[in-house]
Design brief:
alpha+beta; Beta-lactamase; three-stranded antiparallel β-sheet; 12 strands; 18% strand; globular
Length: 340
């Protein structure tokens, strides 16, 4: 295992961020790992390689993978609609959304508005992780006017993933959190994964009054739990690499783990005219002449980025325990150096 600590400390010191962590995958194997900096800027405790980092919207590809598992099990279909699955609240749903499919929700083609500003006070009360609360959130979301004709445009929407989460809960009778552990984390041997701000180890930070201030674990250290399917997972970099390797194998092996090869292809293929698949941005980076899967995520107190190159079986994971522009810039700088 190659040590990335020196590289990370150089970039961290230049950017003056609390901590950086990174992992490098080659030929579907974790080959390099590192962590540098402090868990909290007001204490001397150094960050460790197995510390948990909040990955924000990088959670979306995990939610899509869970849905794919349920599709292969026959619990859902890619064409399952909001009105069919959420029949208990159908009378409260705008008719424009009735035929929106779970696939459209995962590819941001549902026309569901992006963020929560219109109902900030209502959502501030929805802190429970129960399926009932997520269904209540879906009811609120699906009462808002669509921002386009469903199916016509790619419009990034965290709320669309909340609705998808409510759908998987409706067909299984279990919470999204329980399903993620049962169908994704445990089968992959991921033991560090949880939801919300990590309660031990590294701490998130905000940039305030010209310096970083730690944000200790509390309900205010992350978004409301109802947003889980859109972005509340935390886990260690080695465990995140297990998930990354799953998707690399899905493209490069005939019999990959957990899902059929054809299902991975579907997860990684955007609709016509779009560059967003199911939880993955699809692009051709200037430094790699091949299609990539990538995503970034932040809850404003953490920042993380993943980039996978399936054809060459390489992957890059970088995270920091701050979420401002200098933190995201430091992550992108590490990603650039690793790719070179």
């Amino acid at each position: 295992m190659r040590d990335l600590n020196a590289l990370l400390e150089t970039v961290r010191a230049e950017a003056q961020v609390p901590a950086l962590a990174a992992a490098l995958i080659e030929k579907n194997r974790l080959v390099a790992l590192g962590a540098a900096g402090k868990r909290r800027v007001d204490k001397d405790d150094p960050v460790r390689r197995d510390d948990r980092f909040h990955i924000g919207s990088c959670t979306k590809s995990m939610t899509a993978t869970l849905v794919a598992r349920l599709v292969e099990m026959g619990k859902l279909d890619w064409a399952s609609t909001v009105a069919e699955v959420l029949s208990d609240i159908r009378k409260d749903i705008r008719r424009e959304y009735w035929k929106v499919t779970v696939e459209q929700l995962l590819t941001h083609r549902s026309a569901v508005p992006q963020n929560l500003s219109a109902h900030r006070q209502l959502f501030s009360r929805l802190w429970s992780q129960s399926a009932t609360q997520r269904l209540q959130a879906a009811r609120i979301i699906l009462q808002e006017k669509p921002v386009a004709t469903p199916g016509e445009k790619t419009i990034y929407s965290n709320r669309g993933y909340v609705v998808a989460g409510a759908m998987v809960e409706a067909v299984t009778g279990k919470t999204w959190e329980e399903l993620m552990q049962e169908h994704l984390f445990r089968p992959l041997g991921i033991k560090s994964a949880g939801f919300g701000a990590p309660t031990t180890g590294a701490c998130g930070h905000r940039w305030m009054a010209g310096r970083y201030s730690p944000v200790p674990p509390s309900p205010l250290a992350d978004n409301p739990p109802v947003l889980g399917p859109a972005g509340t997972v935390h886990l260690s970099l080695p465990d995140w690499a297990r998930f990354a390797i799953l998707h690399l194998k899905g493209e490069s092996e005939e019999n990959p783990p957990l899902l059929r090869k054809a299902t991975f292809v579907k997860l990684h293929t955007p609709p016509a005219g779009s560059t967003y698949a199911m939880g993955w941005g699809i692009s051709q980076p200037s430094l790699a002449q091949e299609t990539s899967l990538q995503h970034a995520g932040s809850n404003t107190m953490w920042f993380a980025q993943i980039l996978l190159l399936p054809r060459s079986r390489r992957g890059f994971l970088v995270a920091t325990n701050a979420g401002d522009e200098r933190a995201s810039g430091a992550v992108r700088r590490v990603m650039e150096v690793l790719r070179q």
